[in-house]
């Protein structure tokens, strides 16, 4: 009986690990894609992380104020 519970517990932990791993991989891929777009459209490939943040802070208020309605409902985790 205990072995069966241990196996089920292991399977549950393994499943959670797999789900978390898939979510991390998806997030990493999304961040890489967005970073590539940032470099492409802002010609930011030679900027440091700090300089990139400064650039984004400079224009964030303007961009957010003028964001098209179809993009305003974007989920915060996308």
Keywords:
78 residues, 3 helices, mainly alpha, elongated
Structural summary, described in words:
By secondary structure, the protein is mostly helical. It has three helices and no strands. The radius of gyration is 20 Å and the shape is elongated. The mean pLDDT is 92.
> Main beta sheet, described?
none
Shape: elongated
Mean pLDDT: 92
Strand content: under 5%
- Helices and strands, in order, run as HHH
Radius of gyration: 20 Å
**Span between N and C termini?**
44 Å
- The counted number of beta strands is 0
Q: Indicate the low-confidence ranges by residue numbers.
A: none
Tally of contiguous helical segments: 3
The percent of residues in helical segments reads: over 70%
Present the secondary structure layout:
Elements: H1 2-42, H2 49-65, H3 69-72
What is this structure, in a nutshell?
The protein has 78 residues and is mostly helical. It has helices at 2-42, 49-65, 69-72.
């Amino acid at each position: 009986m205990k072995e069966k519970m241990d196996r089920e517990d292991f399977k549950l932990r393994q499943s959670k690990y797999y789900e978390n791993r898939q979510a991390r991989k998806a997030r990493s891929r999304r961040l890489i894609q967005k970073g590539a777009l940032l470099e492409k459209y802002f010609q930011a490939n030679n900027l440091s992380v700090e300089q990139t943040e400064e650039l984004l802070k400079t224009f964030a208020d303007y961009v957010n104020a003028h964001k098209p309605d179809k993009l305003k409902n974007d989920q915060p985790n996308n």
